[in-house]
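Example record for the data management plan.
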Amino acid sequence: MAATTTELADRWYTTQFSVRRSIRYHQRLRAFYDRLDKLSNMLSLIFGSAAIYGVLEENAKSVALVSSAIVTIVSSINLVVGSAQRGRDHTDFMRKYVELEKSMLGVECEDRLLQVQTERLNIEAEEPPVMHVLNAMCHNEMMRAMGFKKKELPKIGFFQALLAQLFDFRESSIQNPKTKSKTT
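Corresponding structural encoding:
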């Protein structure tokens, strides 16, 4: 019976860790898409104003053309990416995972763990493909929050971290650090 209790505690802990990592993952993506949407709107406003100035000012026709082109490009990218919608989607996923974590606050039991795992799979079925570098970054954040040292965590390169919210860059290079074994 003790082995079963220990096994349940381990599976409970692993599931709870995964749920918390997913919350961080979706928080980061929500923040990214919110910033992208705000930046796009800001640039459209600034360059839209410059375009109006260029139209009204006799000697600034080139300012109007360049500003109009920039507004068109920025607005088109934002429309195609759908940053506002994606931000809302990640907010919804984050909320679902928070609800899932809330359901784990009670007593650990096999039935509840099965329900949580089933619900987690249902949420994952709705999610867009995982960005593995960003997921690894969230994993490292969770590990640091638990007191693990930096040298014990998988190393994520500068460019990987920089591009993590756009696409996976060399995700296969992320490996667990090798533990040094003492040989006699």
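Summary line stored alongside the record: The chain has two domains: 2-128, 133-184.
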